[in-house]
Amino acid sequence: MCWNNGKLKVTENGRYLQHADGTPFFWLGDTAWLLLKRTTREQALTYLRDRSNKGYNVIQIMLVHDLETENAYGRVPFRDHDLDQPDAGRTAEYTSYWSYADEVIGMAEREGLYVALVPVWGSVVQHYGVEAKAAERYGEWLGNRYKDCPNVIWLNGGDIHGSDHTEVWLHLGRAIRKAAPEHLMTFHPFGRTGSSAWFHNEAWLDFNMFQSGHRSYDQMEKDKPDTLVGEDNWRFVQTDWAKVPAKPTIDGEPSYEDIPHGLHFLDAPSWTADDVRRYAYWAVFAGAFGHTYGHNAVMQFHTEGRGVGAYGCTRSWTGALDDDGAKQMVHLKHLILSRPYVERMPDTAAICGDPGYRYDRLFVNLGTSYLMAYTYTGRTITLRLGLFSGKRAAVWWFNPRTGESESAGEVDNAGTHEFVPPAVSAPVTDWVLVLDDADQGFAAPGLPLSR
Hints:
It is a single chain. Strand 7, helix 6 and strand 8 form a beta-alpha-beta unit. The chain is globular and about 70 Å long. Helices cover about 25% and strands about 20% of the residues. A six-stranded parallel beta sheet has the order 8-7-6-5-4-12. A six-stranded antiparallel beta sheet has the order 13-14-15-20-17-18, with helices on one face. The protein has a three-stranded antiparallel beta sheet with strand order 1-2-3, with no helix packed on it. The model has no long low-confidence stretch (mean pLDDT about 95). The protein has two domains: about 1-335, TIM Barrel; about 345-440, Immunoglobulin-like (Sandwich), CATH 2.60.40. It is of the alpha/beta class. The longest helix has 15 residues, at about 130-145.
């Protein structure tokens, strides 16, 4: 189990996460917002085992989505809608809301999964006018309840601007940190915003999280007040990398698979596996320390018996578990961990000419002994070599759709070189070019790091 490697902490360079013993940690998250609200024990275990088997290691969950709706066992989180009165009791005949939450967190631990917990969704704070002192007491109660769980990470906030009810989030974050100092924490913001805009210098914020959101380029062009383009999620990473002090950053909510562009436009196209894969590679190659995937049906645990769910969902979550995007995310984790991790840095100096616009943009990561370049459109990649060690470079093509690699020989690690991706008959032909110092003897990209 990963708990044997010690607690999670930020790497010395302030960019990534690792365990206390130095083992790299690549966050591969899945969005399970309504897990505690809509599943039974058996269903929760089915979901957690599926995600663990698919290589995920973090599950993002709302502890409290609203104050009135009962969970699958007919329980609500608080008595009288009061954060000072959590319903936490348990007897042989009675399972409370919070004792069920305890069970699910324990299940996740046994499956080797971290749970990234949102204490209370932002809409609850807005609707009920939660006071800062009440949030502080609730945060202290939460922190003490789960401080000994090795698999807990905190997502303060919950789809809300940090400028709304700021004192609530400050008191909540500080209280949890005081009670549970060993747990990492961030802030889950509103769409097309990031935590660094409000809380970058807060002591309780260990890493930044942004929500690139669900809007397309066309939809963003009509939304003039926004300064960052949602589909260009790599721009959020660049913004966070420019902050001082350095803190890791991640896209905690990009466009979900099988959800309409813009969420509320039910006649719009739905995001596909190709789209969610692109979001993941763009963010990580721009410098994010991992990525969170989401699926429309799974995040809300929709069943056909519910009719039409949020955002036009009609599919059962159990059937959506095996959608292509969900299965392909693990290939990115395997790729990144197959080369030295902490030294990985985004790089543009290696790119000859214009990096490209929108879908055609090229991304490069550079280590001391390797280079990786991602193209979503299968464009020819022209690079300046000699930026990593070795006189000869081993050339690989890594397929993000399958996780397979193929060798393309060696080239001199000097001068300028043009690399043409393999031809495939797919609507989207994204590829990762991997160049290694040939003397290092790395295994094929995607296989465990070895020399």
